[in-house]
């Protein structure tokens, strides 16, 4: 379609051209002729222009040109038809191109007209795009600034609310992500300037909070320490109760089967005071870690807590130590419990070496202070109270790993001081007990009194409960003394327990032995040697010492019991005091015997009370003998009730031996110048009454089974043999060795010689009155004279 249209347009152009040529053909012909002839056409051209009609010339020239072209075309057509056609077509294309160009120019002009407005709009659009870009950038920068400002506001709010860690996180976020991208330099400078101030403010605030916490925890340390020590004391009490129950179960378990009692021990909830809060400290550590000055905070905490410790270690001189020691020691305990928690949970806030330094600092002040306070104490109660609380402190802090050896050494070094005070206290009580004792047998009316005064100290002689009222063989001094001894044992055990030595039984035994020897035994000896006691008191005192001697085994067993030794423990060695008490008992017996002898001497002043030259024989004996026998009966009855059989036997034998010696001594006395047979017979009657009494008392007291070969009567053998000799019809037989060894072995030659020299009878005496027996009496006198002569020669 497009080629056919092009050919049609070409043909229309050609037809138009031909019409124009035909129209101007006449005028053009002349010009053509001129041109064809080669004539000069310049005059024609000049004439046309001069005439002002160049258009006609131009047309003519165009006509000529066209004619020539036609001719050329015809010629070409003839020779180059196809070429001409191509050229024509090309010219047509050229024309079309020119037209197209003209159209394009027209369209371009129109386009330029239309596009200029569009270009203006485009420029406006580009400008809008630039503005938009700038606005977008500005918005972005504004949002960044807004975000920064929001973070600043948020940081301020955190700081105002005391939320320092979020504040520091906000500051860190500003530093890491925003501060380098802040477009506003002034804002950036302000923030950069304020960040160090904020950090410094946070540090000061946190340190202020830590300081407040330190003040608060210092005031709480006393409660913390008291709670911990109370818990330790409760555990110690439970352990004692459990041990006591185990002892009882062991004592009841006689079947051989190991029956154990199991008890569920429910741990008490942790005391509220022990739940102290370390959150401010943890927070401060974390915040200082965020600030990059954690080490500085560690040093700050250590320094300030050390200052607090030194302040806590100062005690006021205005208040007695006994009134403040619990508060002081509880404060120290609470302090180191807190530091142990900080060491374990503080994440390196404290080093073990630092806690060790704190503890050494405390020991350096507590140890000498306790030594001084112990040295100045005058009361066992005060010393024991402080010691108990110190041991509770020691046990409590041992659970937290602290080395408490120095504190235990202080207590151990004070044990002699405590026992000196305890001895002084118990000596005073012992002297009061001995001074207030009535030395009368104790009458127990109730079973509870029997348990408190007899069974409690294992003083019973039988496991059978006696009938009441029960008359004990000892006076009230014995249970009172036992109470003093057990009080001493308990005080000693209480002080030595939970100390440096785990096995302190030997120490308790040594202190007990020393107390029994130096206090109880010496007090008893002082009483014995005082000379202010009577026979009955001496007898009761001897009986009391016998019971106390037997109680020594109980004292030792009681000490072992309190020292937490097993209930079946049997001491390997007895107390030395037991031996010394035996010696004191013997001294009491000697004192008793001495007093008995002195009393007998009062009754048996034979030199004055006996008529040595009497003219008549008294069948009932001398007057003094009834008093002597009555006294001996009372003495032996009392001895039988109070004293053991061996002691009773000793009293009886001693008294009768003294009577015998008194009788012999009377005959030997320088105040007795002479005596006669009647005096001898009266003394013989006295002696028979004594022998009868001795046999009755000996056999009625069940002594015959024990002392079969030594009855009471044998104690007067010297007096009996002397009376027998003086009453004998042949006294000279004394010089016969066989007869003397059989009948007079208790008599010595010298004494017999002195006594026989005093034996003199007058003619008008007893022998003179019996005139029918003169021969017999004469023979006896001769025999006596012979004895005197032979004794004189022998001596």
From TrEMBL:
Record localization: Cytoplasm, Cytosol
Family indicated by similarity: Belongs to the SEC15 family.
GO CC term (a single one): membrane
Superkingdom of this protein's organism: Eukaryota
Residue ranges occupied by any Exocyst complex component EXOC6/Sec15 N-terminal domain in the UniProt entry: 60-229
Name this protein carries in UniProt: Exocyst complex component
Keyword Transport in record: yes
Membrane-spanning intervals of the chain: none
GO biological process terms held by the UniProt record: acceptance of pollen; Golgi to plasma membrane transport; intracellular protein transport; pollen germination; pollen tube growth; vesicle tethering involved in exocytosis
Function comment: Component of the exocyst complex involved in the docking of exocytic vesicles with fusion sites on the plasma membrane during regulated or polarized secretion. Involved in polarized cell growth and organ morphogenesis. During cytokinesis, involved in cell plate initiation, cell plate maturation and formation of new primary cell wall.
Domain Exocyst complex subunit EXOC6/Sec15 C-terminal span(s) in chain numbering: 406-758
Keywords associated with the record: Coiled coil, Cytoplasm, Exocytosis, Transport
KW rRNA-binding (keyword) present: no
InterPro entries per the UniProt record, alphabetical: EXOC6/Sec15, EXOC6/Sec15_C, EXOC6/Sec15_C_dom1, EXOC6_Sec15_N, EXOC6PINT-1/Sec15/Tip20_C_dom2
